[in-house]
Design a protein that fits this description.
The complex is a heterotrimer of chains A (351), B (326) and C (316). Chain B is mainly alpha-helical and 326 residues long. Chain B has 13 helices and four strands. Chain B is 75% helix and 3% strand. With 316 residues, chain C is mainly alpha-helical. Chain C has one domain: MetI-like fold (Orthogonal Bundle), CATH 1.10.3720.10. Chain C is 68% helix and 1% strand. In chain C, α6 (103-139) packs across α12, α6 runs parallel beside α14 (282-309) and α12 runs antiparallel to α14 (282-309). Classes of the chains: A alpha/beta (351), B mainly alpha (326), C mainly alpha (316).
């Protein structure tokens, strides 16, 4: 994606006064979603290991990481969409503990108070039903309305996400829409029941660059209007820069760095975060910034055979520069700090 | 749509004509002389020549073929003053009846057999396949899949004889099948067809079980199923409305083709149980070297197959919104 | 990517896997599959039986054509003496009613016929189907159109009726060759279609382009560059076509147009046993089980091979 465009957009987003509903993040009762020490494993394979984060109403958390970092797995765990997985830790949504909750209670929350949109809108929409029916389906179920009211709601939602001629298009099938329009349909479907939390799993990855910007605009607008809490899962720092208030960087199923988005871009401390930033044109701000893009060498760890100690050490430049300290290969670094949390034995870029 | 339909129908007619021609050449030209068949064993050479002329066998092949094809649409008068009405598929000298009359007479049995078996195999096959898919990897799934493999590997006539041995002979639950018209006695019709239905359905049920299981497993891993769950739909709705709707659609194609092939393709079942169907008619025709009957049954069988093909394609456009013909 | 597949999305960096060749990998997968091993064992058993048929009948002491009047009960219309169709130390699997021919010997020779015809017919189908499929897929245009039409046509033929009719009108000759030719002739479009499809996709891959740029000519591209890359699907299809052919051969014999008596064939034995199913059920059960086991074995093995070559499709 064209990062230069994104960065100018990024500054726009940062300088824009946050449009928040009255009370914003400081409302009583704490964050809408509070996840503590979340771990997910499939059989013997641990994919997410002790991740903690929370999201307030009206705010956006960006979860960043490569594929296999556990970012999608964490969010699917929030919705209780894992089958055959062991989920431990705590997921508190609006005061309710979800880990260990009966599946029926989770089901009733899904689609009504927590919603999700996915990466590939074509394969994520059912090919045989009209988009109107697909939007109406969840609304009817959760709100127990008539068929007609649900259909009206579908049309209304299509209009809200900016689809022209919504009444006609509601009767069309997903394959008759363009990629961006399909993602709008997905958003309409997710938001039909006015949820409090929206999880967007790489919603723009499969789209054209120009369309990506529109979709992000749309999510930001609706979030501002409704005071929605958003979790934006992405591997694209440009997206984070545009939309996130806080950022959680994940690596190998663990938290690498977690702080305000502003801080991540200005003063990243984890070598992985710095590596990510250095590999993005126009965002490169690492400690050894010489204006050249750098790819992080190597590839993400396999969850089946994770490296011992710090999972990032085989690819870590700072580890190599420090002549391979034993601590990195032996001990898993703990997440330290209060506002700016980093899990690294050799954190750099001290503020 | 209309252009598409016209094209398809033209193709159907073309295929049928070619099949007709090939069959015609093979059965009228290559083998033993139909005139001798028609005339009988005690025929003198002069008499054979006379019969040949009467039957038009002295004319060139293409002319005979032309007469045959025209006869289908216009009817014709055969030698010795035999009237063969529209549609004329020739005359069976061995049965002393026009082939069309024989076909019509036998069609009821074949349809009874095919439809009953199809209903049975659809119910059993799809149920087993879907249960297996939803319980993928469990002991139940493995047991069902071993059962379907077993069922698919049993030859039709072997199944028939095992059923006869155990159900008719040893357990004496059912009488030895003898075909009864539906209109005559529906209960006797059904009870006499139970064994043939099971025999014929055994193989297909096994195939459909494996097929629907594979389809269902694939569909349930589709992203739109995850979307349905993310919407908070109850699991039953996810499976039935979202999963099965998509998983079963391709099976419609295969079902149509199988049913089309079955109307004349149940030859072995009909032979084993002595059912007077089209398959049995074809078999008897072959045994008695009754060429007009062989030609007629082959054409009818091909007709069903090609028509089933066409119907399936048209139905598919209705059930899968992604398919639109232009 | 679904979350569930996350473990698989991690790049396969395990160095152990890269050392083995693809065929070795496939073989290892098949060996770990219990059903495949079971199928393989039965296949080997029947192949050994078929190959050593003369030896086995020598040990047994009965040729498949020897009559044994002492083993049947003339007073009871020729029913075999003794239990279970006359199973005894003398006749291991009993005898046929009326003639008293040894069923073991006939079943053993039946295995020979069954495997011989079905494998030869598959070879014919594979040869014809591969050549024509490659030609259609590679050249496209009118060649493709012509070959595809022929394939469509052959597949819309009511094949069983047609095979029976064709065999029954053919001049007397070698029945085995005739069966092979006809079964092979009706079987090739199925493989031709697969090969054509594969050839079309392979045609546009880089290595074929590279060969073309390198100056390779048509036929050499066809056979040297493309064929090795479509052997896997051909192999799977061929394995799965064997049980189909075994079934067809038996069905044709059952309907009286297979190999001619007194040559033994399982289908024919079952047909002859039909009138005896009540008084001497072993007569049809023994060849029936042989038929069932061979078909099952080849299906199990073929399925396992398909899963091993394409682990995504099929079972998981």
């Amino acid at each position: 994606m064209s990062e230069s465009g994104t960065v100018s957009e990024m500054t726009g987003r940062r300088t824009r006064p946050a449009v928040r509903p009255a009370g914003g993040g400081e409302r009583s009762g704490g964050p809408i979603l509070d996840v503590k020490d979340l771990s997910v494993s499939f059989g013997a394979v641990q994919v997410v290991d002790g991740v903690t984060f929370n999201v307030d109403r009206g705010r956006t958390l960006g979860i960043v990481g490569e594929s296999g970092s556990g970012k999608s797995v964490s969010s699917l765990a929030v919705l209780g969409l894992h089958r055959n997985a062991t989920v431990t830790g705590s997921i508190v949504f609006d005061g309710q503990e979800l880990v260990g909750a009966p599946s029926e209670r989770l089901r009733k929350l899904r689609g009504s108070r927590m919603a999700m949109i996915f990466q590939d809108p074509l394969s994520s929409l059912h090919p045989f039903y009209t988009v109107g029916d697909q939007i109406a389906e969840a609304y009817r179920l959760h709100r127990r309305t008539s068929r007609r009211a649900a259909r009206e709601r579908a049309v209304e939602m299509l209009a809200e996400v900016g689809i022209p001629e919504p009444r006609r298009r509601a009767r069309e099938h997903p394959h008759q829409f363009s990629g961006g329009m399909r993602q709008r349909v997905m958003i309409a479907m997710a938001l039909a029941c006015e949820p409090d939390l929206l999880i967007a799993d790489e919603p723009t990855t499969a789209l054209d660059v120009t369309v990506q910007a529109q979709i992000l605009e749309l999510i930001a607008r609706i979030q501002a209007e409704r005071g929605l809490a958003v979790i934006m899962i992405t591997h694209d720092l440009g997206v984070v820069a545009r939309i996130a208030d806080d950022v959680l960087v994940m690596y190998g199923g663990r938290t690498a760095e977690h702080t305000a988005a502003r801080t991540i871009f200005k003063a990243p401390r984890h070598p992985y975060t710095q590596g990510l930033l250095a590999s993005v044109p126009g965002l490169a701000t690492g400690e050894e910034d010489d204006g050249r893009l750098k790819a992080i060498p190597g590839s993400p760890p396999s969850p089946l055979t994770p490296p011992p100690g710090c999972r990032f050490h085989p690819r870590c430049a700072r580890f190599a520069a420090a002549q391979n300290p034993a601590i990195c290969t032996e001990e898993h670094p703990l997440l330290t700090g209060t506002v700016h949390k980093v899990a690294c034995h050799l954190p750099g870029g001290t503020q | 749509m209309i252009v598409y339909l016209a094209k398809r129908i033209a193709a159907v007619v073309g295929i049928l004509l070619v099949i007709c021609a090939v069959t015609f050449v093979i059965f009228y030209v290559v083998p033993s002389d139909p005139a001798i068949q028609a005339c009988g064993k005690t025929c003198t050479p002069e008499r054979v020549a006379e019969v040949r002329a009467q039957m038009g066998l002295d004319k060139p092949v293409w002319e005979q073929f032309g007469v045959y094809v025209v006869g289908i649409f216009a009817g014709r008068t055969l030698g010795a003053g035999i009237e063969c009405g529209i549609p004329c598929f020739g005359f069976s000298y061995q049965n002393s009846l026009p082939v069309w009359d024989l076909l019509v007479d036998r069609l009821g049995t074949s349809v009874s057999l095919a439809i009953g078996a199809a209903v049975l195999w659809l119910i059993v096959g799809l149920t087993v396949g879907i249960i297996s898919a939803l319980r993928q990897g469990t002991a139940l799934d493995r047991t069902l899949m071993i059962a379907t493999l077993t069922s698919a590997s049993l030859p039709v006539y072997f199944v028939a004889m095992l059923l006869l041995l155990f159900v008719v002979r040893i357990a004496e639950i059912l009488p030895y099948p003898a075909y009864v018209e539906l209109a005559e006695d529906p209960v006797a019709w059904a009870s006499n067809l139970i064994l043939p239905w099971f025999t014929l359905a055994a193989l297909y049920a096994a195939m459909y079980a494996r097929l629907s299981r594979a389809q269902m497993i694939e569909t349930m891993s589709e992203p739109y199923i995850r979307t349905a769950r993310a919407k908070g739909l109850p699991e039953r709705t996810v499976v039935v409305k979202h999963g099965m709707r998509a998983a079963m659609t391709p099976i419609v194609t295969i079902f149509g083709m199988d049913l089309g092939g079955l109307l004349a393709g149940a030859m072995i079942t009909e032979t084993v149980f002595g059912l007077p169907g089209i398959g049995r008619l074809a078999y008897d025709g072959i045994v008695k070297a009754d060429q007009p009957v062989i030609l007629g049954t082959t054409l009818l069988a091909a007709f069903f197959i090609v028509i089933a093909n066409l119907v399936v394609d048209l139905v598919y456009a209705v059930i899968d919104p992604r398919v639109r013909y232009s | 990517m679904t979350a569930l597949s996350t473990p698989e999305t991690a790049p396969p960096v395990a160095p152990a896997a890269t050392g083995r060749s693809p065929s070795r990998l496939i073989w290892d997968r098949i060996r770990r599959d219990r059903a495949a091993v079971f199928g393989m064992a039965i296949i080997v058993l029947f192949v050994v039986i078929a190959v050593t048929a003369p030896l086995l009948t020598m040990i047994n002491g009965w040729s498949p054509y020897d009559f044994d009047p002492s083993a049947i009960d003339k007073k009871l219309a020729g029913v075999p003496k003794g239990i279970l169709g006359g199973i005894s130390a003398e006749h291991w699997l009993g005898v046929e009613p009326v003639s008293g021919r040894d069923i073991f010997s006939r079943v053993v020779y039946g295995a020979q016929i069954s495997l011989l015809i079905s494998v030869l017919a598959v070879i014919v189908s594979v040869l014809v189907g591969t050549v024509l499929g490659l030609l259609a897929g590679y050249f496209g245009g009118w060649i493709d159109a012509a070959i595809s039409r022929v394939m469509d046509l052959l597949m819309s033929f009511p094949s069983l009726i047609f095979m029976i009719a064709l065999i029954s009108v053919m001049p007397d000759g070698n029945r085995i060759l005739l069966l092979v030719a006809i079964m092979g002739g009706f079987g090739w479009p199925y493989i031709g279609r697969i090969v054509r499809g594969q050839a079309i996709t392979v045609k546009h891959r880089e290595y074929v382009d590279a060969a073309r740029v390198g100056g390779a000519m048509g036929p050499s591209i066809l056979f040297r560059e493309m064929l090795p890359n479509i052997t896997a699907p051909i192999l799977v299809y061929a394995t799965l076509a064997i049980p189909t052919n075994i079934g067809t051969e038996a069905a044709l014999s059952f309907l009286g147009v297979g190999v001619r008596p007194p040559t033994a064939s399982w289908g024919q034995m079952i047909q002859e046993s039909m009138v005896w199913y009540e008084v001497d059920p072993m007569y049809f059960i023994i060849p029936g089980i042989c038929l069932f086991l061979t078909v099952l074995a080849f299906t199990l093995f073929g399925d396992a091979m398909r899963d091993a070559i394409d682990p995504k499709g099929g079972r998981r």
